[in-house]
Amino acid sequence: MTSDRVLERVLDATQSTFNSVLDEYRPRLQVREIGRVKSVGEGIASVSGLPNLKINELLQFPGNLFGIAFNLDPDEIGVILLGDSDRLEAGDEVYRTGNELKVPVGESLLGRAIDATGRSLDRGEPIQVEERRSIEREAPAIMDRAPVTVPLQTGLKVVDALIPVGRGQRELIVGDRQTGKTAIALDTIVNQRDKNAICIYCAIAQRNSAVAKAISTLRESGAMDYTIAVVAGGEDPPGLQYITPYAATTMGEYFMERGHDVLVVYDDLTRHAWAYRELSLLLRRPPGREAYPGDIFYIHSRMLERSTHLRDELGGGSLTALPIVETQAQNISAYIPTNLISITDGQIYLSPDLFQKAVLPAVDVGKSVSRVGGKTQIAAYSHVSGDLRLSYSQFQEVEVFARFGTQLDEDTRQTLQRGRRVREILKQPESQPIPVAEQIAVLMAANEGIFDDIPLDRIEDAENAVRERTIDRHPDLCDRIENSEKLSDDDRQSLVEVAGDAIAPFLDDNEVENSADND
Ligand SMILES: Nc1ncnc2c1ncn2[C@@H]1O[C@H](COP(=O)(O)OP(=O)(O)OP(=O)(O)O)[C@@H](O)[C@H]1O
């Protein structure tokens, strides 16, 4: 073979190898849409150059900072930032992620304090993410919902007897600052121990000390075992505060869809509305009443609509919402409180006047209502709630006149005597939930006038004696009450007799006839 021929064959072979390599070559291309930061403000940024961006899409900024596309105008995009924006500058690059914000969900979150994006706030191990879900999800359809039939016991006599809450209900806790709103919600969480419920405490822009206190109360009472604390601090960017309750709802839905009963406390939605107003004003959305944007009702209604009781075919789980709203100077007709009152299925109103008089929990029974819970109440409450409500409201009316020092007839004197004792009995210290059977025993005794002759300062001891004696003497009856069985006349008679025995020592060593004068 001539050298020319050899060269020709080598070239042919090289050509075919080259062609086959070229055929197999797949360049690794990554397409990223990159925009630019136009300007940065307090918790927001304005971005340009991302024409295909979708609303609510997550954007990535330098320094692992994320934001959500909020305003899509033709020439610029308004973004709410979810982290510290100190180092962000005009001209920085912005990347699309193609996704909405998704938060971790799952059992690994139980017992942890986290922020809305799943970052650990309790200096524990990093969160093990099993699954992520979008923070904005559609509420269950009407056909997927079942009626609310099971009670959610708060362990508070005044709430369980007079303003009962059902699993899947939305009950607003409303009141001025420092009236014990958080305390009621935390007591309810503490009372879910051994009741197979999952709880989520969602703190929005609360003082750090208040959040730390709430979490330590839950830890001390063992409630963190079944609770997740989702927290946005007061100094966190408004964007993070805004998304926190949606993230908490998504975390709750995960458990609801697995058939659990879930309780979510939103503490509080006044501050959530403030965060949204701040963002809207910074992004130049048109302000409306009290400078809130036009969709302020919708941000709360679409979130609370996600609370429900699912049909058995869908697992039968439930998500109960206890949103908290703060009023200024007892003005419940302000914009945000009225919105929330109309969205929810009732409200527990806390009165600063009662708080000052040390009537705690400071629940104003007259201004509180539960539109759903009554149908779910444990059967035994039907023997006590009606009479209790009547005698208490009569007392409240009469008490106003009695202050003028008028001469009182015997009936009025008795109404006052009973009412003062009922009020004393409805008092309850924090973090000390009372089981249903003991509540029934005490409230039935109060209705029957068993406490009428006991001086007010001894009522608490007498009440404790009645509770102890009832559990001791009638454990079977207590079990039946807990199982929502109806009480027979004999059962009621036995409860009243036991209460009569239990309070005897409190009558003996006191001048009975003077008790009314001591009131
Ligand atoms: N039942 C109770 N018995 C005794 N103290 C109580 C009771 N309920 C609340 N308190 C006390 O009242 C104070 C205010 O309670 P809490 O923080 O729950 O009120 P709040 O309305 O949530 O306050 P804020 O407006 O700051 O959120 C706390 O010091 C709490 O310990």
Structure description:
This protein has 519 residues and is of the alpha/beta class. The protein folds into three domains: 34-99, Elongation Factor Tu (Ef-tu), domain 3, CATH 2.40.30.20; 104-291 and 302-327 and 344-377, 3-Layer(aba) Sandwich (Rossmann fold), CATH 3.40.50.300; 382-518, ATP synthase alpha/beta chain, C-terminal domain (Lysin), CATH 1.20.150.20. The chain has helices at residues 3-24, 157-162, 181-190, 208-220, 238-256, 269-282, 296-304, 335-343, 352-356, 385-402, 410-426, 436-447, 459-473, 475-482, 489-508, 515-518, and strands at 34-40, 44-48, 57-61, 65-72, 77-81, 93-100, 102-105, 113-114, 131-134, 172-175, 197-206, 227-233, 261-267, 318-326, 346-350, 369-370. The strands form three sheets. The protein has an eight-stranded mixed β-sheet, with helices on both faces. It has a six-stranded antiparallel beta barrel with strand order 1-2-5-4-3-6. The chain has a two-stranded antiparallel sheet with strand order 7-9. Strand 11 (197-206), helix 4 and strand 12 form a beta-alpha-beta unit. Helix 11 runs antiparallel to helix 12, helix 12 crosses helix 13 (459-473) and helix 13 crosses helix 15. F-type ATPases have 2 components, CF(1) - the catalytic core - and CF(0) - the membrane proton channel. CF(1) has five subunits: alpha(3), beta(3), gamma(1), delta(1), epsilon(1). CF(0) has four main subunits: a(1), b(1), b'(1) and c(9-12). One of its GO terms (molecular function) is ATP binding. ATP binds at residues 175-182. Its main location: membrane. One of its GO terms (cellular component) is plasma membrane-derived thylakoid membrane.
